[in-house]
From TrEMBL:
Single Gene Ontology MF annotation: sigma factor activity
Alphabetic keyword roster: Sigma factor, Transcription, Transcription regulation
Keyword flag Hydrolase: no
Pfam families, per the entry: Sigma70_ECF
Domain spans labelled RNA polymerase sigma-70 ECF-like HTH: 6-187
Keyword Repeat in annotation: no
Name of the protein described by the UniProt record: Sigma-70 family RNA polymerase sigma factor
Amino acid sequence: MAEAPSLTVWIQRAVQGQPGAVEHLFSELYPELRRIAHARLYVRGQAPLMSTTELVHESFLRFTRARSLALDDRKHFFTYAATVMRHVIIDLAREQQAMRRGGDSDHVALDDLSPTEHPAAAADETLIEIHAALEELDKLDPTLARVVEMQYFAGYSQAEIAELLSLTERSVRRHWEKARAFLMAQMS
C-alpha cells in the first residue's frame, strides 16, 4: 500500500495550482486552524467579531482566491494562515465600524442625535489602529511584525511561534516586547 503524500507535497501541489490541493490542505489542517481561530477570537473574554467556523471558512475562501500561493512547507502555511486570519478580522472590524458610522444608510444631521458611546466601536478602532501600526512595523522589521501577527491575531503560543519562525522562545519573547513597545509608541 502506498504511503499518503506528506503535507509538504500537498502544499507544493496547491502552489502549482493543482485542482483540489487547497481543499485537501484545509481538510487536513481544519482542526488546527479551528484551534488557532478560536484562540484568537476568544482572547481576554471579549465578545468575538465572528464565530470560529466563520473565521476558518472565510480564511479558506481567501486562500482559494489567492492567485499565486508562495508556500514552502507546514511552517510557512501556518504563518500565511495567521496573516490571512488577521486580514479577515481587520476587514470585519472595518466593515462593522463603517456600519456604525452610517454605512449605506441615510445621513442624519448631528444636531438630531444625542451623543452616545458605543463600546464595540472602541474595540474595532483599536484593532484597526493595531493593524495600521503593524503595517508600519512590517516595513521596519518583518520578523517583529510576524511575531505580533502570530501571537495577537492568530493566538499562537510563543513556543509555537518559535517553532514556526525557526527562532528560540527567548528570541520570540524579546521580539514580542520590542514589537509591543513600538506598537504602543505608534498608537499613543
